[in-house]
Design brief:
Helix content: 40-55%
CATH class: Alpha Beta
Strand content: 5-15%
Number of domains: 1
Family: Belongs to the FMN-dependent alpha-hydroxy acid dehydrogenase family.
Binding site for FMN: 78-80, 107, 128, 130, 156, 252, 274, 307-311, 330-331
Cofactor: FMN
Shape: globular
Keywords: Flavoprotein, FMN, Oxidoreductase
Mean pLDDT: 96
Number of helices: 16
Distance between the termini: 52 Å
Bound molecules: flavin mononucleotide
Organism: Loktanella salsilacus
């Protein structure tokens, strides 16, 4: 067993264990992947301020997210096809999050259904909704999430249309994988993934198949998405969905100050500053660069969370220092899941927590609640002078 000390160690194990089409699905951005790359490289431009001779004992990362107590201000982001990275992946990730004391978000495009996850975890989780053209399906899935006891709806607003990811098209991404000579050859080298997959019944889109009339052939995710996702989604529709849901609402995929103000006007418990991990508008600015302006505009009116690019506890600390109340992580936990299942997600969370805790201490802080702009050195042009 290798000694695992970083999120990157888990990524290398994930790459070796999962079929290529699923690892590539995780490790892609859209088009040139500029935004995907800058989501992480922009974190590196921020530096931390070392402080000394301060009492560093009795530290805490405990916080809250939309009123819920959390062990650290980190939620697991919704990730489609998680159950293809590892058999029953959504259940495993939800269990690891629950044990660690952080929220888990189940994607509309998950493999295990809302009901599967609710039955296996017996604890509330967040449910992420993609708005489809089929209104009856949307009404039903909102009711299913309520019935399962989901305690927040995460409404994703940055994917009315799918940003093109070249690798997915070239690999013929599908769930379950289509058995072509190329995929058979690849899967033959991934025997531990395959053995586990043979033991589960969850191998296609559990929230959709059997629930949406249109879900007869979902084998091409990209063409199915193009046909089914609601391209007319607007603020009026968001207001109606908010009413229909009636519970805590998180609006995800906001990258612009004007949109953040509209989100606050429509009413929400939190927004997630995000560019979908660089998977949608290639050429958009990184989420960490956009964060300070959005916090300045709406930070006193709603909880501002951020995601896209977090690969370490230092990154979480930097986001917090720039005003994010908390963060969501996507790939950072999927690597763990793809590497080692539930234990891998726990490992990811432990790595992030430890890095955050020690770094906070070396910056002279003992409580995550006290981490602010003071711990950072920010280059003058960080936010950019864009015309
Ligand atoms: C493989 C993959 C699938 C994703 N699927 C969804 C999804 O179904 N719904 C959603 O709202 N966001 C989805 N996202 C975006 C994540 O929720 C999150 O915004 C992103 O992963 C954050 O960037 P990071 O991976 O750099 O942390 C997905 C991201 C990845 C990597």
């Amino acid at each position: 067993m290798p000694v695992i000390t970083t999120i990157d160690d888990l990524k290398q194990m994930h790459r070796r264990r999962a079929p290529k089409m699923f690892f590539d699905y995780c490790e892609s951005g859209s088009w040139t992947e500029q935004t995907f790359r800058e989501n992480t490289s922009d974190f590196d431009k921020l530096r931390l301020r070392q402080r000394i001779a301060v009492d560093m004992s009795n530290r805490t990362l405990a916080s809250t997210m939309i009123g819920r107590d959390v062990a650290m201000p980190v939620a697991l982001a919704p990730v489609g096809m998680t159950g293809m990275q590892c058999a029953d992946g959504e259940i495993k990730a939800a269990r690891a999050a629950l044990k660690f004391g952080v929220p888990y978000t189940l994607s509309t495009m998950s493999i295990c259904s809302i009901e599967d996850v609710a039955k296996a975890t017996k604890a509330p989780f967040w449910f992420q909704l993609y708005v489809m053209r089929d209104e009856e399906f949307v009404d039903n899935i909102i009711n299913r999430a309520k019935h399962a006891g989901c305690d927040a709806l995460v409404l994703t607003l940055d994917l009315q249309l799918l940003g093109q990811r070249h690798k997915d098209l070239k690999n013929g991404l599908s769930a379950p994988p289509k058995l072509t000579p190329k995929t058979i050859l690849n899967i033959a080298t991934k025997w531990s993934w395959g053995l586990e997959m043979l033991q589960t019944k969850n191998r296609s889109f559990g929230n959709i198949v059997g629930h949406a009339k249109s879900a007869t052939d979902m084998s091409s995710l990209s063409s199915w998405t193009a046909e089914q996702f609601e391209p007319k989604l607007d603020w009026g529709m968001i207001a109606r969905l908010k009413e229909k849901w009636g519970g805590k609402l998180i609006l995800k995929g906001i990258l612009d100050v004007e949109d953040a103000k509209k989100a606050v006007a429509v009413g929400c418990d939190a927004i997630v500053v995000s560019n979908h991990g660089g998977r949608q508008l290639d050429g958009a600015l990184s989420a960490i660069r956009m964060l300070p302006a959005i916090v300045a505009a709406v930070g006193t009116q709603t909880e501002v969370l951020m995601d896209s690019g977090i690969r370490s506890g230092q990154d979480i600390l930097k986001a917090r220092a720039l005003g994010a109340h908390g963060v969501m992580i996507g790939r950072a936990y999927i690597y763990g899941l793809g590497a080692m299942g539930e234990a891998g997600v726990t490992k990811s969370l432990e790595i992030l927590a430890r890095e955050m805790d020690l770094t906070m201490a070396l910056c002279g802080k003992r409580d995550i609640a006290d981490v602010d702009r003071d711990v950072l050195l920010v280059p003058k042009d960080f936010e950019g002078d864009w015309a």
